[in-house]
Amino acid sequence: MKKKFYGLLVLLLVVIVSIVIVIIPTFFTKNISRISLHKEFKLPLILNDNKDIKLLFFGYSGCDKVCAPRLYDLDKFYNSIEENSKQRVGIEFLDISVPDDKTLPEKFALYFNKEFKGIYLDKNILRDYTKVFNVFFNKTLMDKTEYDHTANLYLIKKTADKKEVRYIYNAYPYDFKQIKLDIEELLHE
């Protein structure tokens, strides 16, 4: 009888520990994949068109392991946005690789969606952008044509007198339901 009691007690303890380890942390890690901030910046190139809200993604042209899946997902997301919102919302791909062909970032972005904008950054401007957005990148050890890089998505808002980073999405797959809510919020500010 005592063995049966201790067996049930151990089983109950295992269940309780499992619940504590698996379920409880989700309450404390909610929204960790999204950082909210109001960080103003004064860099050229971004938001220099009629769009006042942008999603920015830093990557490199030809990146098939990280950039292509994310840009493909951004294409699906962008196509789900209402047409009247698209007039104010854009997606920009900023190339970290400083390619010899300055048109490559634009071609790469347009491959995923004809509305996306690809931006070539020279070394000096790239340095400024990586500082402001805390973007890390480095050539891989195995293949010098590939880069390890930050794969965050940045939601930017432009007003009459400033540009600012409002949200950073740092977990993939991105939470597009939350991104859509954030965009709607910014559209109505």
Present the secondary structure layout.
Elements (H helix, E strand, L loop, with lengths): L1 H21 L1 H6 L4 E8 L11 E7 L7 H14 L2 H4 L2 E7 L8 H9 L4 E4 L2 H11 L3 E3 L7 E3 L3 E6 L4 E7 L6 H12 L2
Parallel strand pairs: 2-3, 3-4
Antiparallel strand pairs: 1-8, 2-7, 5-6, 7-8
Explain the overall architecture.
There is one protein chain. Strand 7 and strand 8 form a beta hairpin. The strands form two sheets. The protein has a six-stranded mixed beta sheet with strand order 1-8-7-2-3-4. A two-stranded antiparallel sheet has the order 5-6. It is globular, with a radius of gyration of 21 Å. Helix content is about 40%, strand content about 25%. It contains seven helices and eight strands, in the order H-H-E-E-H-H-E-H-E-H-E-E-E-E-H. The protein has two domains: about 1-30; about 35-185, Glutaredoxin. Mean pLDDT is about 85; it is low at about 20-30. The chain has about 190 residues and is of the alpha/beta class. The longest helix is centred in the N-terminal third of the chain and has 21 residues, at about 1-20. It has helices spanning about 1-20, 25-30, 65-80, 85, 105-110, 125-135, 175-185, and strands spanning about 35-40, 55-60, 90-95, 115-120, 135-140, 145-150, 155-160, 165-170.
